[in-house]
Amino acid sequence: MTDVSAGGPRPKIPVWRTAYDAYRLGLGAVFSSGVMFRFFVYGSLLCLATLSGYFYIVGDGQSDALVSIGSRRATAVVVITVTYLLLAAVAAPLGICIQRYIVLGEPPRKSYFHYAAMKRGRSYVFASLAVSTVFLATALVQMFADEAIFRINATTLDEAFETPRFTSAMMVLAFNLFTYGIAALLVVRFSFAFPAIACDRPGASLRQSMSETRGSLWRLFFVPLIVSIPYGIVSSAVLVVASSFAAYNYIGSEGFVPTPEELYSILMSSSSFFAGLGIVFVGAMIIFIAIAAGAARAYQIRIERGLSGVAEVFS
Length: 315
What we know:
The protein is 77% helix and 0% strand. It is mostly helical. It has one domain (15-314).
């Protein structure tokens, strides 16, 4: 095999085709056998249990749960960190098996938790935590920066759109989008570490992935972005419909429009809203599968081409 830095022309990455393959191969792997589908179900249930625990601890069933997060920062950071750790641990076996199936054609042969306990599983969790750390650090920066921009807490929807608060809100939105974009660009550089670890490639690491993805940053960035767009549109529509349905039922029974504080309690007691959340969660797991499959497909083609240049993965 030649070195990844070998010279020669590098074809452009066909972003759209790679995004299409992410869905095709990811869903194909899940439904390829009963074992793969069971792993998908196991991973989904474990992630759901982890997220349910997070919302139970943070929300504690109170309508002012979101305010509690802001006022108890230390507790919020600890809870979020533990949640990221657990999510990385419970989702790692699913990611490993999806990528091993796509690259090596190997279905799972061990139990779900066996893949998490193996060396590759621990390395995969570590890489996942590195990604989570980037986004967690970004969220912390945003939390303090947003307060510095806003300075005040809006108590009603009307106040939130008053000047200068509306101007501050737009500044916060722009800052958050910018910082998340920077974080995403960094995380994209880690994308080849996951299939390399899953397939037991010698020397697989985040550092090696950053070297292998050099020169293809923007195209690799747009692949998961395009994969995520349908989910963003559908999940937003589902939540809007579910929330509107819950609020409409409340208005019909009580005869008046709820306040933002009351709306939280209404949503938390609405079966339609939780049904919408269920649909959104299933979609999130599909996106996880698709992104993992996209990285695996890119890595697979790259191996077939003899490690002659990372951009050739997508030729």
